[in-house]
Amino acid sequence: MKHLWHRFLASLTPGVRVLLCLLSVVYLAAVIGKFSHAYDLNRWLAVSGPNFWHGQVWELITYPLLPMAVFDFVFNSLMIVLLGGLLERIWSRAEFWTYCTVAAIGAGLAKVVLQFSNPFPMTGMAPVVFGLLAAWGNLFGHEKVPLVFFGEMTVWQLALLAAAISFVTTLFSAGLVNALIMLAGGLTGLLYLWLRSKILMTRESRVVHSERINRLEL
Fold it and tell me: Which domains does the chain have, with CATH numbers?
């Protein structure tokens, strides 16, 4: 069992490994605080409209570290392992963390704008997972994935299906506004990737332009 655990940790990319450790530590600390009644991490890490507008702006980044429940922690950790590793291998550790942060901030801003007076806090990695699904579809969209009951599907189709299931589940369990807030993580991720590609294309075009000028001068 110990050998399998070490093999599992070794297979994870560094950024995903650090993120999972951080989520585990914060979740354990939250559970200890809840049952000991010594402290409440929700007051400091979870995001809500009134808290944000009263100056607790750091909650836009910290709320994903607190899972809503055990199932939320396990499911989102699994999605981070499956999708985060793929993305980090293409990007870098810093780029992966930056993307997760951007997706979290996008959903957090949607929360404090749409529910500016609602004191009910938001926690969990669901908006970030929506962002990871968006990035997965954006980068691997046309690749085929064999499925047992559905046959072959493209990555984009599978990502949209997973996002749709999560959206509908949130819609019926927490309402339309909360479902839209979760979806904002994916939409923010797509916007970030679009802007990133535009910036990279601009830089490349500038390099090509300078090379042509140098050739003309020669």
Answer: 2-217 (1.20.1540.10)
